[in-house]
Amino acid sequence: MSRLNDFLTETGVFFLATTDKNQPKLRPLGAHLQMDGKVIFGVGNFKDVYKQLTANPLTEIAACKPNGEWLRYTGKAVFETDPKYAQAALDAMPNLKNIYNEETGHKLMMFHLEDAKAVVIQMMGEGTPIEG
Known about the structure:
By secondary structure, the protein is α+β, with helices and mostly antiparallel strands. The chain has helices at residues 2-11, 48-55, 84-92, and strands at residues 14-20, 23-29, 32-35, 38-44, 58-64, 70-79, 108-121, 127-130.
């Protein structure tokens, strides 16, 4: 997990793909953390991405470093039920507390990928699987 988490941290922004009925959707994300042996991601319960992941949890994440090395992380989104993950994310990224709080009513929904495969690919090269 460390290599996957480190890659995502280094890129800062990565892209999450979902579907809305038959239409692919792609958006930039940055909220993630490593905890309990998993890389965990966060999305808002009021956003379309949350609705899309609950309707169809199959997803893919792509991230790219400036040197052209890129990551593809594919799996099934499984939402965490323990609030400790959202709290850890809010503690690590305090700017999110302006969005996710009792006043706004918005909740940060945390998920990890199961049955997942992560591959790091060199520009114009072959992919190398990493644990994830």
